Amino acid sequence: MKLLSVFLIVVATVGISIFSSSISNISIDELGVSWTFSFLLPRLLILATSIALAINCWQLLNKKKKAIKISATIVAALLFPGIQFALNPIYEGDLSKTDRFITEDLYKENSITSWINESDKNFNGLVCIASPTCPHCMVAVSKLSRSLARTPDKKHIVFMFAKDEERIESFKKAINVDNINFELMPDQQGMLELCGGAFPTFLYFKENRFVHRWSNNNFGYSAFDWVENDLE
Predict the structure, then answer these.
(1) pLDDT (tens digit per residue) in 152-208
(2) Using CA atoms, how far apart are residues 116 and 60, in angstroms rounded to an integer?
(3) Which of 9, 97, 98 has the alpha carbon at shortest distance from 54?
(4) N or C: fewer beta carbons within 10 Å in the chain?
(5) Which of 105, 102, 100, 97 is nearest to 209 (CA)?
(6) CA distances for 202 relative to 12, 59, 174, 183, 199, angstroms
(7) How far apart are CA 57 and CA 143, in angstroms?
(8) Buried b (16+ CB within 10 A) or exposed e, 37-71
(9) 211-223 burial string, b = 16+ CB within 10 Å, else e?
(10) pLDDT digits over 141-152, tens only?
């Protein structure tokens, strides 16, 4: 009976490892669970099944020498979490929430902020500065689209560092996104002032000025939760 339990736990753990991305995506897109918890969910499940596996191995090897029991139990507890971390490591940026607060003394009006305020005087939302040739931008904008699907009352804009609409259409087609407003950069110099040449860059606007900036990979899963809650 214990051997069967060990087998079933191993099968369950392997299944969680294989479908870890699907588990996270279902949690985010279908169940509406927070981005941070959904990202950690497969890892937590593997940790739980590994603890159950270690307990069952200890009991199964009850009559074996103590050294064998301890060694097997440690291997059972650490094997799958170790494999999961090796294949899908958690980087510092994955759980980043904040990057740079734009206080009153740091805020400077430029052509981009003026364009946004003139286009929508009540704009409160996220602005993404992206490049059509940037693979990280494709991933970021895809996630932004999913976030907008979760919170359709939000306003998000993607400013594309491109010369024509054709590049924007190619970008949208490549990532299959149609629920975000894309705009050509109204001013190249103003765009560079805001992003510093780092793509993607995210700006959060509140009460007609941007109050927070995330550069490149500092916009993690926790940042999505924060934005969806209006930085509160």
Answers:
(1) 888 888 988 887 888 889 999 999 988 898 988 877 777 777 787 788 999 888 877
(2) 65
(3) 9
(4) C
(5) 102
(6) 38, 52, 21, 15, 9
(7) 40
(8) ebbbbbbebbbebbebbbbbbbebbeeeeeeebee
(9) bbbbbbbbbbbbb
(10) 999 999 999 998
DSSP 8-state secondary structure symbol assigned to residue 97: -
Q: How far is CA 174 from CA 50, 168, 212, 219, in A?
A: 39, 10, 29, 22
Amino acid at 144: L
- The architecture of the domain spanning 98-228 is 3-Layer(aba) Sandwich (3.40)
Residue 14 contacts by C-beta under 8 Å, 6 or more apart in sequence? 80
Residue 112's Cα: distance from chain center in Å? 26
Cα 10 from Cα 83, distance rounded (Å): 13
Q: Which amino acid is at 68?
A: I
Helix axes 2-18, 20-29, angle to 10 degrees: 70
Structure tokens, 68: 């064998």
